Prior knowledge:
Chemotaxis protein chec
Amino acid sequence: MFIGLYYHTLEAKGRLAFPAKFRRNLKKGSVITRGLDGCLFVFPKDEWEKLAQKLRQSPVTRREARAFVRLMTHQACELGFDAQGRTRIPQYLKDFARLAKHVVVAGTLTRVEIWDRETYNQYISEAEKKGGEIAERLSELGI
């Protein structure tokens, strides 16, 4: 399980040091891809396989299903770490998430999210303003 929030710096060479706590759950392999809301998603291999299985079952005749599969898979790639726990994020994913020097690495239960720090702070600020409303909607779903 991934929980917690870490502030890191993207190195000039494009490498990002991952928190050791998260690396332990990613050592059997991981996949990085475009996320939602402007961040990147990093899945451990087993969680990626669960998602891939669901994506395989989505109806190819539905435009939204095709679009979502493409968004999640076209720019996905395996992620590796060097001896210092750093990884190199592909430029196209850095561009997508508008990653600058300062980033946030956040645990979201089954995945890790990588955010540009400014984008993250703006997103969280807006979500906090709507916290009660979000909680009400989720309670209707039994959460």
